[in-house]
Design brief:
- The protein is an alpha+beta fold.
- The chain has eight helices and nine strands.
- A five-stranded mixed beta sheet has the order 1-2-3-4-9, sandwiched between helices.
């Protein structure tokens, strides 16, 4: 019996190599996602930094808040990011847990990485205009950073949750007033006449190109790719589809410029490993702020 060896043509070998690479990537992504912690409740304290009384109080507060209006806030602590930046990690975790309602995308994730001394508030698409990047930055720097530096993790997290709930319930004035009293949160001082001249001159001669470098130069950095300048929030980067772009909004609203790609569905999430709590199918496009202590 003669054994025949079938050799692939160059196009065939290329197609096979591409298929193998895609398969390896898919398996790699699956394994990577599996390393994310399970959603076991409204407070997932894997780092063990929240005392029992505060955890119980937070769990009840967040449950009551969600029942009243359907917005979903989850607090998570981990020991380490294992070398990953907190922004992509928080976004992956948010999407893995599917926080907020599908179609509403009204979830919020407060994440603390203990060993990395980093924290982030990740905001779902649907809440970016209410719990803005500026609000989350103020909460991190006013509530969390000072308390964490004093070793009071429970107190800092509890205060941050209180302020997030306050803003989401439509009462942001107190938080914004605190930001006005603290000059560290305001944009770099610049003469108003000079500012107007820069904007008009840049827009007339360079159009949108001017907006690519003026806010990062003179504004306050809220998080990677997000700046606050002259009462406007500017965001640079890529949308969920991978397309590059930028957007800006004035006042207290903060839009991302990209639409959500999440699909509809009920309150059941496939990311939870049992128990009586899960996300509802929501998503996030990277809105929010980060900090460190």
């Amino acid at each position: 019996m003669t054994t025949r060896t079938v050799s692939l043509s160059r196009p065939g070998r290329f197609a096979a190599a591409v298929l193998m690479a895609v398969t390896a990537l898919l398996f790699g992504f699956t394994a990577f996602a599996a390393e994310l912690p399970a959603l076991t409740g409204r407070v997932v304290d894997n780092a063990g930094i929240i005392d029992a009384a505060t955890k119980a109080a937070l769990t009840q507060k967040l449950a009551d808040f969600e029942t009243k209006g359907s917005d979903q806030i989850v607090v998570a602590t981990i020991n380490s990011l294992d070398g990953e930046e907190i922004e992509p990690y928080a976004n992956r975790l948010f999407r893995f847990w599917k926080l907020g309602q599908a179609g509403e995308n009204n979830g919020v994730l407060l994440l603390v990485a203990k060993n990395d001394h980093k924290m982030r508030i990740e905001v779902g698409y649907g809440l970016e205009g209410t719990l803005t990047d500026l609000h989350t930055k103020l909460i991190i720097e006013n509530d969390m950073v000072p308390a964490f530096r004093a070793g009071d993790f429970s107190g800092g997290i509890a205060k941050a949750v209180d302020d997030m709930v306050m803003v989401l319930e439509g009462n942001p004035e107190e938080l914004e007033a605190r930001g006005q009293r603290n000059p560290a949160h305001n944009s770099t001082p610049i003469d108003p006449i000079v500012a107007v001249f820069l904007v008009l001159w840049g827009t007339m001669f360079f159009g949108g190109l001017a907006m690519a470098f003026l806010p990062p130069m003179f504004g306050t950095k809220l998080s990677p790719g997000v700046y606050r300048w002259l009462g406007t929030t500017f965001r640079y980067g890529r949308g969920p589809s991978g397309s590059s772009g930028s957007s800006w909004t004035t006042g207290s609203s903060s839009g991302s410029g990209w639409s959500s790609g999440s699909s509809g569905g009920g309150w059941s999430s496939g990311s939870s490993s049992g128990g009586g709590f899960s996300g509802g199918g929501g998503s996030s496009g990277g809105g929010g702020s980060s900090g460190s202590w």
